[in-house]
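ESCALATION

Customer reports they have been waiting on this structure for their group meeting. Please prioritize. Original submission:
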Amino acid sequence: MRFRNGIRSLLTVTVLGIAIDAAQQTAETPQAPKSFVLANDKLALTIDSNGARLSRVTMKDGAPMSPLASMGHFLALDGFGAPSAAEASAGMPFHGEASHQTFRIVVSSDSAKSHLLTIQATLPLAQETLTRTAEIVDGENLVYITSLLESMLSVDRPVSWAEHATIGPPYLEKGKVVVDMPATKCRVRPYKPGGIPGHLVYGKDFTWPMAPVVGGGEADIREIPTGHDWLDLASCEMDPGRRLAFVTALHTEKHLLYGYVFRRMARGPERRAPDRFSTTDEQNPRDQARLVQAMNIVSGWS
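Update from on-call: job pushed to the front of the queue and completed.
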């Protein structure tokens, strides 16, 4: 018998202040639709069947403007960025396989107050199965998205999993959007692709939010600059003293907030599921290496 132990990852996403119209599909649907829409009286979320991408988030009590960019919120799984030469020769795409897979409906339910949709896809090269469940409840401006990644290998291996969220126009405007998070230590990436000039000093460490800039001095990178087109990449550690962290993008003119609230991951080679997710680690050998994240997508008028 081949155990499907490997790494099991559980991700919970909550979306605040958005509108939803549940798609009534079944597991027997012969061909997956291009997108699924969940809606209640508060908000709406569109999920593309290709890659399970969150492509649009809108509120019912405001302008029908989604803060997400054209590429939306997509999965970089299993891999982030360009593959190695060996991976590319085997067919591994940029940012991994997940965003290129068609997800099928596993479960769909629409009760009096709750609307739920579960979709699933297999990643053939990584030998993993990803299952995502989106659920909303009437009267709440929340969408709960739970993602479970299960390895089909009989041995443990590292997993590269990024929830790649992007914001764009018309929500993203120069000088009118402030991005914030409870970060501490940061580092500017020592290189970046493309020909768009950078503003930050490559490879330099800094403390959020004041980053070193070319030519001397510092810049508050929470603010979207005006009058310049720059591309910079930096990584930041969330405050280790916090159980929950967040990343938000506030449109200061429209008074609209979009962001994420998530639980920080534990460090160490074996990452156990905290709180209510840690119910089977001691009994089930398949769950000995488990990565757990909790993330909220936040959108609302302030």
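Sent to customer with the following note: The longest strand covers residues 290-301.
Escalation resolved.
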